[in-house]
């Protein structure tokens, strides 16, 4: 293998992590050559808008999501190329187009591939991940059309709400009895569920989708119980899997379905960093974990880029999850598992509430903040201390959730 191009810093993946890493490199090294290889057809962009803001704020467009990576000095972005082989000893990567690139320092930020139901490839059946996916969904989501959405994920629930707010008839298929049943207390889960139904979304509960077919510009979805649904389009939000095959083949150390890194995102190879959906790293509060979240990608990606350029920074920020639909907003830290012991703190001034989740040993394991403005660092500090139920109850007025 002989490289056709060589970069001081080579970034594999054109998502938020790659864009943040490029910016982080430039903060430390204003001149060193940066190359980016992306399987996407679009340059790096802010992905959360695809299921959120683009559907509810029509003054916000796809152009507003562009992150401007290619405008950085001495930076080259190669689109529609997928890395298929990593030769660590030679510091080379090979893509599916046959191109070979050399590097001094390498970042792996290849993200996830969304899961799909069995069925033919079609522009009418989309597992939302990219701008191109958004364009295809938009094409079959005209007012009055009927779109089927499958999944209990954040993306599935957000896209269902976004479509409904654009006068699209929506049927949402979930495998639980209520939306977010596995994460939220029953009362809040029911509140979420009732709001969706009040906004005209049909929800089919407790059933799995089995497969789909395309006939005469229509999607026919077959459920596991034998029922069939017809629609003008299908959106799948049924999880994803990390893109780590070539890294595994290259012998990098793995953990929790991801590439194992230290607190600076360095892998078992000192010239290779990994960050984002594919990286298993030691969180300062929660311990070793692999996390899929945009703010983690933004902040951690920047740290990874700075470290590629020699900064030696330790990643100390514990990420959070969030969503907002209609008049409901929430943010979560740590583990949100409704099978755990849960306690409620009612916030009289705002009308919101905080839910505290405790593990089997009755130590704090997660925090859900519901419909209220707050300082997340305050809750990070609480979670960092891992108080017991008794210890936290001595400082706050908590009510057990049965």
UniProtKB/TrEMBL annotation:
<keyword id="KW-0274">FAD</keyword>
<dbReference type="InterPro" id="IPR050446">
    <property type="entry name" value="FAD-oxidoreductase/Apoptosis"/>
</dbReference>
<dbReference type="GO" id="GO:0005737">
    <property type="term" value="C:cytoplasm"/>
</dbReference>
<feature type="domain" description="FAD/NAD(P)-binding">
    <location>
        <begin position="8"/>
        <end position="297"/>
    </location>
</feature>
<dbReference type="Pfam" id="PF07992">
    <property type="entry name" value="Pyr_redox_2"/>
</dbReference>
<protein>
    <submittedName>
        <fullName>Pyridine nucleotide-disulfide oxidoreductase</fullName>
    </submittedName>
</protein>
<dbReference type="GO" id="GO:0071949">
    <property type="term" value="F:FAD binding"/>
</dbReference>
<dbReference type="GO" id="GO:0012501">
    <property type="term" value="P:programmed cell death"/>
</dbReference>
<dbReference type="GO" id="GO:0033108">
    <property type="term" value="P:mitochondrial respiratory chain complex assembly"/>
</dbReference>
<dbReference type="InterPro" id="IPR016156">
    <property type="entry name" value="FAD/NAD-linked_Rdtase_dimer_sf"/>
</dbReference>
<dbReference type="GO" id="GO:0016174">
    <property type="term" value="F:NAD(P)H oxidase H2O2-forming activity"/>
</dbReference>
<keyword id="KW-0285">Flavoprotein</keyword>
<dbReference type="InterPro" id="IPR036188">
    <property type="entry name" value="FAD/NAD-bd_sf"/>
</dbReference>
<dbReference type="InterPro" id="IPR023753">
    <property type="entry name" value="FAD/NAD-binding_dom"/>
</dbReference>
<keyword id="KW-0560">Oxidoreductase</keyword>
């Amino acid at each position: 293998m002989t490289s056709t191009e060589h970069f001081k810093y080579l970034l594999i993946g054109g998502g938020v992590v790659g864009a943040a890493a490029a910016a982080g490199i430039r903060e430390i090294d204003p001149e060193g050559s940066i190359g980016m290889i992306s399987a996407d057809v679009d340059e790096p962009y802010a992905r959360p808008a695809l299921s959120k803001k683009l559907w509810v704020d029509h003054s916000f467009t796809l152009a507003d999501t562009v992150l401007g990576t290619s405008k950085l000095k001495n930076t080259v972005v190669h689109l529609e190329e997928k890395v298929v082989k990593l030769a660590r000893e030679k510091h080379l990567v090979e893509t599916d187009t046959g191109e070979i690139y050399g590097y001094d320092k390498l970042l792996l930020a290849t993200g996830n591939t969304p899961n799909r139901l069995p069925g033919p490839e079609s522009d009418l059946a989309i597992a939302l991940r990219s701008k191109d996916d958004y364009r295809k969904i938009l094409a079959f989501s005209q007012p009055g059309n009927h779109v089927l959405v499958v999944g209990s994920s954040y993306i599935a629930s957000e896209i269902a709400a976004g479509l409904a707010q654009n006068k699209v008839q929506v049927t949402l298929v979930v495998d639980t009895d209520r939306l977010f049943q596995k994460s939220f207390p029953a009362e809040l889960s029911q509140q979420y569920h009732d709001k969706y139904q009040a906004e005209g979304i049909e929800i089919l509960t407790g059933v799995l989708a089995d497969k789909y077919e395309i006939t005469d510009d229509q999607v026919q979805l077959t459920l596991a119980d034998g029922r069939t649904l017809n629609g003008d389009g299908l959106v799948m939000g049924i999880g994803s899997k990390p893109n780590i095959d070539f890294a595994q083949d290259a012998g990098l150390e793995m953990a929790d379905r991801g590439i194992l890194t230290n607190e600076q995102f360095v892998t078992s190879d000192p010239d290779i960093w990994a960050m984002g959906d594919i990286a298993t790293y030691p969180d300062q509060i929660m311990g070793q974990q692999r996390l899929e979240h945009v703010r983690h990608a933004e902040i951690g990606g920047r740290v990874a880029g700075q470290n590629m350029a020699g900064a030696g920074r330790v990643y100390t920020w514990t990420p959070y999850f969030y969503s907002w639909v209609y008049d409901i907003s929430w943010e979560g830290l740590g583990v949100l598992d409704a099978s755990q012991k849960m306690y409620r703190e009612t916030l009289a001034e705002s009308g919101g509430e905080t839910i505290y989740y405790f593990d089997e040993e009755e130590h704090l394991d997660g925090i859900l903040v519901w419909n209220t403005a707050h300082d997340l660092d305050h809750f990070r500090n609480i979670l960092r201390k891992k108080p017991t139920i008794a210890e936290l109850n001595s400082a706050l007025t908590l009510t057990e959730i049965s």
